[in-house]
Amino acid sequence: MNAVFGGALIGLAASLLLLANGKISGISGIVAGAISAQRGEFWWRIFFLGGLISGGLILQIFEPEVFKVTTRALPWDYIIAGLLVGFGTLMGNGCTSGHGVCGISRLSPRSLMATFTFIVFGVISAKLFDWLREVP
Amino acid sequence: MKNTVAFVTGLIFAIGLGLSGMTRPQVVKGFLDLGPDWNWSLLGVMAGAIAVHGIAFQLIRRAPSPLLALGFDLPMKTKIDFRLISGAVIFGIGWGWAGICPGPGLVGVASGQQEFLLFVGAMVVGMKIFQMASRRFI
Known about the structure:
By secondary structure, chain A is mostly helical. Chain A has helices at residues 2-21, 27-35, 43-62, 75-91, 96-105, 109-132. By secondary structure, chain B is mostly helical. Chain B is built from 6 helices and no strands.
């Protein structure tokens, strides 16, 4: 049930940002806006990302096991995955938060389609990883 | 004030991701690999988040404006196009490979662990590559 409770906290956070600031909690979009100097509305994004990392520090202090990694991924795997995630989320205008949570909550057809697509390809990729690394 | 809200939102978001198991790549991969000990956590997180935000969205949309801003900044695009689907395919492949998406990656930076630092560094580079490529070609 921790999953559902954690999810509810995410939904609460997204609702707070929309109610107060009128913004969508799409994390890839927030990062993209923060790293490109051309766009306005720079500072709220920095504060949001600061909040994310501060939340991470609180977890690191009180619940460090939430960062325990037991997969067989090698350093290179994180670099390749990170490049694909950065490129793909900007191309598709969103990630698990923007499309998967906020978009589906708004019943956006684009977000439903994007979420379906990235879950299907996430499954294929995770399966391929297991097969190549021979996880029993 | 808007910045304070943004900070608090990010903080709650991070705690939600951590408590729900999403900052552990094996939990995400345990969902995506549909294995014999299938981990349903990701589905639970999405259900919990969508239940709360879906209801809240219906209430918030009736307000004439947000509390601290002039208007709601909602995505205007409605077309399901090649760019949306290709982006989702590329993101999905990266996500399934490492078991990390942007939110948990950034939260994980606070742990100082190599996995998250490499992922987030590469993610920012991937975004920069897209931004440069789209300026030139799209």
